[in-house]
Amino acid sequence: MFQFIFRRLSLVIPTFLGITLLTFALIHMIPGDPIEVMAGEHGVSAARHAELAAQLGLDKPLYVQYFDYVVGILHGHLGYSLVTHDSVMHEFLTLFPATVELSVCAAIFAIFVGLPAGIFAAVKRGTIFDHTVMTMSLTGYSMPIFWWALLLMLVFSVTLGWTPVSGRIDVVYWIDNVTGFMLIDSWLSGEKGAFISAVSHLILPSIVLGTIPMAVIARMTRSSMLEVLSEDYIRTARAKGIAPWRVIIIHALRNALIPVITVIGLQVGTLLSGAILTETVFAWPGIGKWLIEAISRRDYPVVQGGILIVATIIIIVNLLVDVAYGIVNPRIRHSR
Amino acid sequence: MKKGLAALPLAMLAAGAMMASTAQATSTLVYCSEGSPEGFNPSLYYSGTTFDASSQAIFNRLMEFKYGTTEVVPSLATSYDVSKDGLVYTFHLRHGVKFQTTKDFTPTRDFNADDVLFSFNRQRLASNPYHNVGGGSYGYFDDMGMDKLIKNIVKVNDYTVKFVLNHPEAPFVANLAMDFASIFSKQQADQYLKAGTPEKLDEDPSGTGPFEKVQYQKDSLIRYVAFKDYWKGKPKIDRLVFSITPDASVRYAKLKAGECDIMPYPNPADLKQMAKDPNIKLLSQAGLNVGYLTFNVKKKPFGDVKVRQALNYATDKKAIIDAVFQGAGTVAKNPIPPTMWSYNNSIKDYPYDPAKAKELLKEAGYPNGFSTTIWAMPVQRPYNPNARRMAEIIQEDWAKVGVKAEIVTYEWGEYLKRAKAGEADTLLIGWTGDNGDPDNFLYTLLSCDAVGGGNYSEWCDKSFDNLLIKAKRTSNIAERTKYYKEAQVIFHKQVPFMPIANSTVYEPIRKVVKNYKINPLGTHDFEYVSKEN
pTM here? Predict the structure, then answer.
């Protein structure tokens, strides 16, 4: 098992180097000048432009900037935002809990709806239920997030008034920022109604963000289950008179889960990138919105640092997924 | 049991919503702002978003703009005297002004001359220990020419300060009412410097303004409470919350749902519906801005005034107002907006007359027109909500007189950089006023000094420039008005740029909000606002 993990880890270093080089190259390749963006219509004189560039280290040749950046990473520094002058790591840590909270809730929604829907569709193959689930998941999969978010918002928040429009908690609750996770902070605050308000603010964004992963999980579960259900050992189990639900859950599902887990792992990337749109629509203070803004302002350190951290997370999650296979299916551990 | 469980979340939501609405009934004003501030020091940044969150809420200045107007009145100064030569301004400061208490700073003295000296010297003197804190770039201060204008600032006594200038400059007093001139607490600055944490001054400053900042969560919200010792008396609302909502449609949804009370920058397409909503009042006001198209006079054929005039005749501005502004704007004829003093209304705009345009082009030696480019901004601005569309209309209009124009656009930073380098033939751009003074438009956009900066036409006309300089040197408003009106006549004849539109600013508010006024300078001020229960 350790050897397996070690093997996977050794791939991580070149991946990291690749990511730093790619983000650095891409953000510097698109035209634009952070100093000009900051000054807007006012503009800055050539002399002040040079002065500011020197101050921000933007006057150095690109390879020196890249070298400084990599050395910084090795020392654990991701640099400072050109706009707010705050450290990239600090900004990330303030915003990341919001993204995690939203992504976890979206993942819970996706798994708890997608998995049973997929199982039922497989078991009731060819019935109206199966067709309905598959049509809905295809629709969900092709849904433009932005439009879907605004639609749900208009129906449930504006017209019906069931859920709040946006934000993380009602403005009447003045919650101290302890962990950065609103669900926990509102609970800790002990303020009456704060926790419920935090939950209600999570409902629509979680559904919106979880829709695509949910659709993918449902479809994957269905096809994987169908394959397993036609295996001989399932027929044997049924023949032995085992209760139908036991056959499905214990015998079939466990084997059908492997591709599903892969998909769930891959969906972490979808969740983090989908969070960009969802966060923008629901004014959710997470890293998606932060990165988009940094790109438009050419805030190089934020873009480079932010993407590096997100990529790291995706790599770690994928590593965990690989390890999880090993647990679910021991055969994977031993093969090369 | 199953039914009960299913109903639980809904019941919880309803309960949450009810609790929220009752609590909201206390005087909490929610402003759905468009973005996160870059920081809380208004002298380090340019954006209105930062000014709303810092200078407007937390700080005061020596002078201020009277609520909802561009009239400059004393604030932390009670009065000022100007020396005969216009070089020395003596400010008499207000007594008994308290600073706010922050998380780790408790003021022990009232506002005095030391605070004024600190706030300006930080920006102007490299020797000030705070000068390099927070990037050390005071763009606005420098842009307004304050670095070159102020020779010295002298503390006469605790409540008297003298500003000595290098040359007479009438707009100086209006500049002191601008956001970058906010007054910080020197005592707080000293405390942080001693503790080795000077950067904290820009994160959590103590001001003398109407609201104290309590909490800021980036991209989420900013919370303020009314400052109970505010020298003008405690504001009517107890709490002020900026709910940061970047998307205009979402801001509107929140306004409709009662989750916010005031929203800035609505989508033009939503205005009709907003006006019909019984809970919403749609405020509007002519914006202090102008959107225009520059002609680079250094480039052929725009050095010829006949060509510039011809293209004015060839452009149907009315059609632009209808298509691009959807009616939320008026045709501009002067380089300053009509709400500004000294606006020369006797000037007659060039009518839409393609025949006349062709005639002028022929006289200029271009009977068959010529080829050129129109640069269109990639961003939305109040003075130009859709530059691309505007460029397309102009392109069509010019094609009718034989001028073939290609539309060019770049990313915003790149656009500005190239424009300043004089690369554009014709360029869509605009300006929103900073201080209500005509000098802020005319000198910034058209003076010889501004070539290579805000003067994208690169037009330098000595007679025009002299008038602007004369107007700077006197503080007599009647005299200044005369100079500016004359300058506008020269501008009209020379048309270094084609004024296109003055937009109308809209701000929908909930009807429970009382005494809110749109600030013509574009920032948002909640000091005098109250809310009905």
Answer: 0.82
